[in-house]
Amino acid sequence: EGTPKILLEAMSLKRPIITSNISGCIDLVQNNKNGYLCKIKDSLDLINNLKKFLLLKHSSKINFGLYSRQIVEKKYDEKIVINEYLNQINNL
Question: Which of 47, 68, 72, 77 sits 20 to 30 Å CA-CA off 85?
Fold first, then answer.
C-alpha cells in the first residue's frame, strides 16, 4: 500500500499521530514518542489510545508533534525521496 500521505502531511505540521498498526503506518509512528499505534479493527484500543493522548500534559503533546516533524525531515524530505527514486532507477 505504501506510506499514507495524510499522515506525512500531519507530521510535517508537527502533529502527533494515532493510527492503525498496519503496513505503511508503522513506519511513521514510534509508539509513545510521536503518537500511538492501535490494533487493527479494535475500537476499544483506539478509544484507549485516544484517552491516553488526551491525558498527556500539553508539553508532551507538543513534544510528540516535534518528534513527528523530525521523522519527516530525516526520512521523508522531498530531496531524500527523489534521490532514492533516482538511485532505484539507475540500478535497473
Answer: 68
